[in-house]
Amino acid sequence: MRHLTEVPPRRGLIIFLNGTSSSGKSSIATELLRMLDEPYFHMPVDAFHAMRSHAPVPPQELDTVLHRTWQGYHRAVAGMAAAGNNVVMDHILSAEWRLRDCLSLFDPRDVVLVGVHCPPDELERRERERGNRPPGLAARQLRQVHAHGVYDVECDTGVADPAECARLIRDFLPSRPTPTAFQRLRDSG
Ligand SMILES: Nc1ncnc2c1ncn2[C@@H]1O[C@H](COP(=O)(O)OP(=O)(O)OP(=O)(O)O)[C@@H](O)[C@H]1O
Fold this sequence. Notes:
The active site is at 46. ATP binds at residues 19-26. It comes from Streptomyces chromofuscus. There is one protein chain. The chain is an alpha/beta fold. The protein is built from eight helices and five strands. It has a single domain (14-188), classed as Rossmann fold (3-Layer(aba) Sandwich), CATH 3.40.50.300. Helix 5 packs across helix 6 (137-145). The relative contact order is 0.21.
């Protein structure tokens, strides 16, 4: 490897998978990374929580610690894209501020906002089968996660498997229309 003093500047693409817990985001991300020709980084929000040490957090400080983790995650994704890296973001827009924060940080031309949908009964079934998510978590998130109502591309994991969803997203990329969902959301905000 040569140590470069500079590389050509460019902006990375952010494929933003948004859906409830158990909707299938990570499974789609895994397929996408396999399918896409260029290098991409899968950055799931879960990975950022997993990086935190297990030092005890006083209950009254827990919300602040979590909030800082989410804010840091958004800025880490923005930083990777600003350095020219392509990112598959795997996140849950279960609070309104999260979308507003991302809208303020990402270049809206470079975001492909993907709605990852799944019917409530199938979400419940997956939660039961996985056993590592609190029952009813996805149902509680469902309404807020898709409340903004605007996407570049959407998939339903109740009917399509992860590879089919990933192909749909991959095939959307070469001729994606403008304004992007992020541009529309920013303009309407
Ligand atoms: N399209 C699909 N069809 C059927 N089962 C699926 C599909 N996608 C994912 N699953 C299953 O649903 C469960 C959750 O999938 P996955 O981890 O990809 O979801 P997630 O949205 O990333 O969840 P979380 O946010 O809770 O981490 C897994 O057991 C997975 O095998």
